[in-house]
Write a structure and sequence with these properties.
The chain is mainly α. 60% of the residues lie in helices and 9% in strands.
Length: 191
């Protein structure tokens, strides 16, 4: 569900914004916000695979406050309990995945093959390969019956991921702007 969360949360309503209004706020105040599920190998060791849910964004120094407020809105206040919006997002995502499989079947096959040889390959298969495609297809197949369960599982996944102890920040800015950015991150970490 973490891979699905990365795809869905940027298109769902939040407590304070409809998805359209949130998108407008992101476009007005930032250079974009993105979410993805990825992994890193510590010391290039496949046995030390570390999955990471990444929320990335960029903003000019005068908009750092808005950047962190929007990240907080997206990570902590997304509404997974809107069945119509969730249904629309899932159907669209399944359609996009189907197109990706049709256009890049060879790439999906390579990912599947790598899953037999490494933890990193297995992680990619589960989070972005055929396994993930089949997972989403199964959810959409009986969507009306699955919506409550999907909503609950997305919310539970978000609650597990978006905790202070899971946060790591990488900030790139001029030295004079670092205090503002780090103060915002410290405030965010208390949420």
């Amino acid at each position: 569900y973490a891979a699905l969360l990365a795809e869905a949360m940027v298109s769902l309503n939040t407590t304070n914004y409809s998805y359209g209004d949130l998108t407008n706020e992101i476009n007005i105040h930032t250079g974009g916000l993105n979410t993805e599920l990825t992994s890193f190998l510590e010391n290039r060791d496949d046995a030390q695979l570390r999955p990471q849910f990444v929320v990335s964004g960029k903003a000019v120094n005068t908009k750092v406050n808005q950047l962190f407020a929007l990240i907080e809105e997206m990570t902590l206040k997304t509404r997974y309990d809107d069945p119509e919006r969730l249904k629309t997002v899932l159907i669209r995502h399944q359609s996009q995945l189907e197109n990706q499989v049709k256009q890049d079947g060879y790439g999906f096959t390579q990912t599947r093959l790598q899953s037999y040889f490494s933890n990193a390959g297995m992680f990619r298969e589960i989070s972005a390969g055929f396994d993930y495609y089949w997972f989403v297809n199964d959810l959409v197949k009986d969507l009306d019956q699955n919506l409550t369960d999907i909503s609950t599982r997305l919310s539970q996944t978000a609650n597990l991921l978006f905790k202070k102890e899971n946060c790591v920040a990488a900030i790139t800015c001029e030295k004079k702007d670092f205090k503002t950015a780090s103060d915002q991150f410290a405030r965010f970490g208390k949420s």
